[in-house]
């Protein structure tokens, strides 16, 4: 009897951590459905992974700020006969301008991308996972979820939402054979800071604070396999979380106000 390989849907697979997850899972025999806006990049990666690992690799180009995208992605998966066993909810970015100066459409797009679409994708794949009594969901949160609040950014609030709801979902779904992990990287070498427009400031941060995406994904996937609801990859990031946790509220506010390396000034 031949067994069908498991399938993983990865959002934000055209770069950085998402593309790294695609390579990591393809090497482990997963079929992939790659999602992001840049179709050319997704097709190049899919061709590379099919050639290297002989795995099926489908592409669906979608803008996740469009509220219609999550349903369209899963309709496509259905049409292709792909049961989504693993969901890597990874697509994301950080806004860079002050809240009050940013057009509402941009802010709404950030919320749609990293809150609503992420939550909807999970909601849409869970029934199938429950039926098959197996599923793995990785939601990309961030070290920012533990950090003091940062002026002007929705990002810390959004990533706190992801951290919190991932744990709640994990509690609800573990009895059904589904593990949910909030992966909370610190500074990671990807295109994130180029998109955010903070590359110069990021480059001035000490090298010890940075990780390669391969290290983040390897530790993240290990946490998933071990059923851990939260993974903070890297020793320096773990120490940072431990140091930030006991901060009294007023001190956290002050630290957020003074230490944020990306604040608009
Ligand atoms: N790098 C870090 O320091 C860091 C730290 C903590 C957490 N994270 C989180 O890790 C995740 C991945 O980020 P990364 O560092 O790998 O950044 P990245 O290299 O910039 O990759 C971001 C990915 O998200 C996709 N994306 C962005 N907007 C999208 C949209 N509207 N619709 C569909 N896809 C979209 C991008 O693809 P297209 O542009 O082709 O659409 C790209 O594939 C994010 O959730 C981020 O918040 C990153």
From TrEMBL:
Which residue range or ranges hold the Ketoreductase domain? 6-164
Instruction: Return the Gene3D superfamilies for the record.
Output: NAD(P)-binding Rossmann-like Domain
An example of a Pfam family matching this protein is adh_short
InterPro entries (alphabetical): KR_dom, NAD(P)-bd_dom_sf, SDR_fam
Q: Which UniProt keywords apply?
A: Oxidoreductase
Give the superkingdom in one word: Bacteria
Q: What molecular functions are annotated in GO for this chain?
A: oxidoreductase activity
This protein's record includes keyword Oxidoreductase: yes
* Presence of keyword Nucleus: no
Record PANTHER family: NADP-DEPENDENT 3-HYDROXY ACID DEHYDROGENASE YDFG, VERY-LONG-CHAIN 3-OXOOACYL-COA REDUCTASE
Family affiliation: Belongs to the short-chain dehydrogenases/reductases (SDR) family.
By what name is this protein known? Ketoreductase domain-containing protein
